[in-house]
Protease (Streptomyces lucensis JCM 4490), 187 residues
Amino acid sequence: MPAKILIVTGDAAESLEVLYPYQRLREEGYEVHIAAPTRKTLRFVVHDFEPGYDTYTEKPGYTWPADLAFAEVDPGEYAALVIPGGRAPEYLRNDPELRKILKAFFDSDRPVAQICHGPLLTAAIDSLRGRRVTAYPALEPDMQAAGAGFQDTEAVVDGTLVSSRAWPDHPAWMREFLKILRTKAPA
């Protein structure tokens, strides 16, 4: 039976930041489940960078079914966790069921990959204090307020935590995460 990976997300997550790791990890032979606040078809978004804008733009993205509701997740069944970005982390960080899931992964030092605005979730459970991370660059003050050392680079590895800035950094992010997974939880 292949090792299982959990992706936690919700509506308004960045399409590429959910679907790229989902497909890449399945390609490696992992069983991947997507959990959200409820079992439903999630509506993702596309964040793009356009000339003349001071920040990214947002457009409707793909839809995808959640396999599980957060309340149905048994964190002990999963070898690793992926936390995509987009706007979803802004509201998900307040979900008590998700906070329990996140805490279980950090308490047991299992591999966690977070990208873009995903570190807002790990900051909300005080799991970044004393760690090195990256995130979407606009989150640098948030990461520092959470007690993390911020690095503006493609991927930062701190123990079993791998963080990345945004979808353009996917190759470096997954390359580093897979190095850890191949050691800690081979497919």
